[in-house]
Amino acid sequence: MQITGIKALVEIVIQLGMIWLTFTAIQGFRLERLFRHPPKTLPLAIVLFSTAIGYLCASFFIGFINAVSQLPGLLR
């Protein structure tokens, strides 16, 4: 049961880390410079977009980690 808790904690950290990473990367583009009058909802759109991309990236890495952890079963 303790291994399941550790695995869940690792997945949460990976999810939040990827969301933070994509948020930082999207902010680096300075999207507000593309508009003469940036919409008031631009920061919300950036947060939602980075959450979506971060979730997809985290799901990929979590799936990859799960697949790699299953490889020793192939050698038995």
From TrEMBL:
InterPro entries: DUF1146. Keywords: Membrane, Transmembrane, Transmembrane helix. It comes from the Bacteria. The chain crosses the membrane at residues 12-29, 41-65. This is DUF1146 domain-containing protein. The lineage of its organism: Bacteria, Bacillati, Bacillota, Bacilli, Lactobacillales.
